[in-house]
Amino acid sequence: MSFDNVNDTIAAICTAPGGALAILRLSGPDALSILNTICRTKHKISREHARKAILAHALRDDGETCLAIYMPGPASYTGEDVAEIQCHGGDFAPLRLLRAALDAGARHAEGGEFTRRAFLNGKLDLTQAEAVADMIHAGSNAAMELAERQMSGQLGRKLRLCRENILRVVSEIESRLDFTDEDLDWIPADTLCNILNDTKENLLHYLDTANTGALIRNGIRLVIAGAPNAGKSSLLNALLGYDRAIVTPIPGATRDTLEETLSIRGIALRATDTAGLRSTSDQVEQLGVERTRKAVKSADVVLWLLDSTEPEKAIAHFLAEKEDGFSGKVILCWNKSDLTANQTLPEIPGYPQVLSISAVTGEALDKLTSEIENAVWRSAGNHEDETAISERHAAMIRQALPALDEAMGLIQNEMWELAAPGLHQAIHTLGTITGESADPDILDEIFSRFCIGK
């Protein structure tokens, strides 16, 4: 992505194709003149019409009816003059208006360029800009709420405060170096170390939220596993609320992994139905079994179904497969409770509480979703944390932390000249999170996640 030509006027369709309505967005110094070129109105649109929906006709006096909105900068999303034209959807109508905007002097916007301009013009910090992308990609209510909190600027404000505290210490150190002969009212070394230590504790707290942030933003991989004919495909269909996987009474009907996305209790899940684990001479089924074992080992949560109509066989099968080791949290469920309502099921070593469900009737599925929710948050932490940083934020914090520890030791020994450089680097590193010191390559990587028109 180029960072040149940030002062020209850009245009893009900012709605998905095929809908009933479409929006063409313009941003830049010529937004208003291009708007008036495209939209025919009784009176030309001017600043006095700002933020009003004006009825217009596209390209000709008898052209398509549309709505024109002009939002003068700096009180706009990008901080520049912004114009939007709302027209009919479909394929041709919005593309015709886009071509007209390009013919009138606009340039086609790159992916994320509207939000990039908002950042460059000081309307958003970099954490807020990232939150825009998180909103676009949110797959659950929890992900959307986290993006909204970050969009409000909470994370940026907290990290800027950490950065300012380090800068305060650096300013004191450099004053001592510049005025060595002056008897000034210096801040004691212990106080400076306390400031850095408090900052370190805050950064460590934010770092602790990284796992939660990754889980909320990316979701978790839930793998449904077990022996053939345990009801895995039926359970996937029950969780989805519609028939997605083929269900037959024939063992081995599922030959490959089948992944679907759903949301349970605000958690985005990538739920995977798998081939039943067993020894088989069928080469195709063997491939499916191997994929199942790989899926189980890489899962965040393994939902292992036990056939309650054959309890002893089901337990022996599970314990044998468990020897290979599971990387994620394991939830055990007796399935087919509708067929074994009055049966006492045996205990499983190491699993004192095993749910009993029916994927066919839906019995106890609410308890299962609660157990999935609890398993996820037990491993992730507080899902309502205000920050829940991303992996990029976590990487920058990890880089900054060692400099604080080193500086505290040097300050205690009044080795001022050696303490300053590391703190300067920490200030720069934290600035890459909020954008004060972000390099173009970092910005390129962040805004490459955006769609055109955002």
Notes on the structure:
With 454 residues, this protein is an alpha/beta fold. It is built from 15 helices and 13 strands. The strands form 2 sheets. A 7-stranded mixed beta sheet has the order 3-4-5-6-2-1-7. Strands 9-10-8-11-12-13 form a 6-stranded mixed beta sheet, with helices on both faces. Strand 1 and strand 2 form a beta hairpin. The longest helix is centred in the middle third of the chain and has 25 residues. The two termini are 14 Å apart.
Short description:
With 454 residues, the protein is an alpha/beta fold. It has helices at residues 31-38, 92-103, 113-120, 126-137, 141-151, 154-178, 189-208, 210-218, 232-240, 283-298, 311-322, 365-380, 391-412, 416-434, 440-447; strands spanning 10-13, 21-27, 39-40, 54-58, 65-71, 82-88, 107-108, 220-226, 258-264, 267-273, 301-307, 329-335, 355-356.
